Amino acid sequence: NKEDSTAFKDAVKWTKKDNAVACQIWEGLSDRNPNHAPTQYNVGLCAESGAGTRDTAPQQTYSRTLALNPKHAMAQRGLERISAGARSARQMAAHEAD
Q1: What is the per-residue pLDDT for 76?
Q2: Which of 33, 34, 82, 94 is 20 to 30 A off residue 62, Cα-Cα?
Q3: Nearest to residue 63, comparing CAs of 36, 90, 95, 41?
Q4: What 8-state DSSP symbol labels residue 15?
Q5: How far is CA 48 from the centre of its chain?
Q6: Are 65 and 44 in contact (CB under 8 A)?
Q7: pLDDT digits over 36-61, tens only?
Q8: How far apart are CA 53 and CA 84, in angstroms?
């Protein structure tokens, strides 16, 4: 709807000023529009920026985005980034254990 479309555009603008505000807007939009892939992707970005590889929330959200839109390249890159980060953390832990 028009109100949610405006809110989405506002969230994009907030990314230049305050990511926390943008993330709050996307969370609200996600609740109202759970099948909107771009919103889900941005929720994933927010989760990733807050949790990195320590949490499964970004991975689950990117996977949901891909379920909604299998061609969403940015969500695929998000999953790859998380996988690479987790792999790097495992390698560092193994190196420190030596």
Answers
A1: 97
A2: 94
A3: 41
A4: T
A5: 5
A6: yes
A7: 999 999 999 999 887 654 567 889 99
A8: 9
Cα distance from N-terminal residue to C-terminal residue, the chain: 56
Alpha-carbon gap, residue 84 to 60, rounded angstroms: 16
- The SS3 assignment for 72 reads coil
The C-alpha angle with vertex 50 and arms to 44 and 51, in degrees rounded to 5, equals 85
List pLDDT tens digits, range 12-39: 999 999 999 999 999 999 999 999 999 9
Q: How far apart are CA 12 and CA 35, in angstroms?
A: 19
**Max Cα distance, the chain (Å):** 57
Tokens 């926390």 correspond to 20
Q: How far apart are CA 81 and CA 34, in angstroms?
A: 23
Q: Are 75 and 62 in contact (CB under 8 A)?
A: yes
